[in-house]
User: Which sequence fits this backbone?
């Protein structure tokens, strides 16, 4: 999963005089980026379905740390680098290109089983959902300038498939409202942030 991230780092070093970067790890607010990731994940650890089946909190925290690192590898490439370089394009072109590249990056998992026709059609069918996700992730990142925001949304997309139970869906639904409110108010200073910035 670090292929896109490593490509982004290498490209940034090779073409450092020619690239424009507006998106950073924590964007315009370290505090809000940490909150964006941290609160829903804390709820996931405390109230997730598996919290009642003997899985220790420490094991779960280590697992989520791994989720963060692996997802960061992809998002450094897609949102942290490529999106910035395509920002001069109309939105539909930008997110379509990112969606196609994102899907092609996953082609091995889509072509492992089934008939030849299924192996060809499956990646084609996933281009549109990935383009729509690229739009949602991309616009959230444009608002916050934070790769952490993209990592959070991407990680939750994966968690919904891995832990597909009612508790996960409830936590995710509440998290969506929380994220929307955060993004709509991202440019506003909050009291705790004012204190930490002094």
Assistant:
């Amino acid at each position: 999963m670090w292929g896109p991230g490593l490509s982004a780092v290498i490209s940034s070093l090779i073409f450092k005089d020619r690239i424009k970067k507006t998106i950073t790890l924590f964007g315009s607010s370290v505090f809000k980026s940490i909150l964006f990731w941290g609160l829903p994940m804390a709820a996931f650890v405390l109230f997730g379905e598996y919290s009642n089946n003997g899985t220790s909190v420490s094991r779960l925290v280590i697992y989520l740390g791994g989720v963060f690192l692996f997802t960061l590898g992809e998002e450094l490439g897609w949102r942290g680098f490529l999106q910035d370089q395509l920002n001069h394009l109309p939105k539909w072109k930008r997110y379509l290109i990112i969606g196609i590249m994102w899907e092609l990056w996953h082609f091995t998992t889509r072509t492992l089983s089934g008939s030849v026709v299924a192996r060809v059609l499956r990646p084609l069918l996933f281009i549109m959902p990935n383009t729509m996700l690229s739009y949602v992730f991309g616009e959230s990142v444009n608002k916050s300038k934070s790769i952490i925001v993209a990592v959070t949304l991407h990680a939750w997309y994966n968690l919904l498939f891995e832990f597909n139970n009612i508790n996960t869906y409830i936590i995710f639904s509440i998290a969506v409202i929380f994220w929307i409110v955060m993004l709509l108010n991202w440019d506003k200073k909050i009291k705790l942030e004012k204190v930490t910035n002094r």
